[in-house]
Amino acid sequence: MKGSQRSQGANASSSKKIVGGIVALFTISFLALTILAGNPLKLINIVKSMSLSRYVLAVLVLVVAEFIRSLRLKVLAKESGKGLRFHYCLLARFLGKFASTITPAGLGGNPTRASVIGSYNQAEIGETFGITTVETFSDTLWSSLFLIFLPLTGLTSWVITLISLFIASLWIFSIFLANNYRLINSIYSRLKISKRMICRIERQRLLFINSLKKIKNKKVLVIIVLLTITSHLVDAYGIMVLEGIWDPIFSHNMSYLRALAAIEASYVLVSVPTPGGSGGIEYGLYSFLGPDLAVRWRIVQLTVALLPGVFLAIITPRILHYIKEVSFPEVDECKEEVYEQ
Fold it and tell me: What is the residue range of 333's domain?
């Protein structure tokens, strides 16, 4: 009975966090889009001028891109020894996208996807977190490198280029830090926490590192890179569809490169510490698309990010479990070398 009450209380708490995240997301996005449009009235006119048929098609294009990323997740899971059915990959992707959109800097995406994978594989969070980190690393590193070298094409946004350089460096340093045994132990020695807690953290770190090391097949890495780039190209095509441009290669109305730059800016600026990077993403879209198209495309992005997650949470209360805070499992034994200086 008490367990049931605690579960209900946890679900209620998760629901409040989700609602709070969505409210904050819409508030910041509305303010950012209003600034881009000029005033609230212009924003309303931009939304009213959207073609419903193009909007629906653009949403479908983004769904196709998520299917491609789900295939990438399936490949990663299989390579790391955690086979996953495709519909679970879809569930992980859409729930992860939803959680990423309503949490600061998109930090909820990885743990949520990892939780879904672990739930169906009876695996610990450290193992599955390694799989989802490779996903995020692939997306972010590709986007950062693209934007770093973008000025060579004549299409320039130096602010975004510098941010991309910082994000790429931060990711590389984070991977180095996670794998640096001496540095980790040095950090442990300065933390005022119990040895038991350090052990629980260290257990997950080692599982995380081992999970990363399993993904070393060169053919698989090539497939991951190709699926990552393909999904981003499909994302960019969604912008062209929203503009009514069906042949991006020979179009003179808008550069496909500009659309792709806007997509990559979205991936990099999601790191802004607001729900789903709101505010930062709008700035990135505006830098390459201008105010009108930036507003319309952001609405498409939010549709694909939020509607599936809300729908799944309504029809399956258990979904709330995946968006809770990640907790480390209890550990009875701890290796002494964890504490060696």
Answer: 2-339
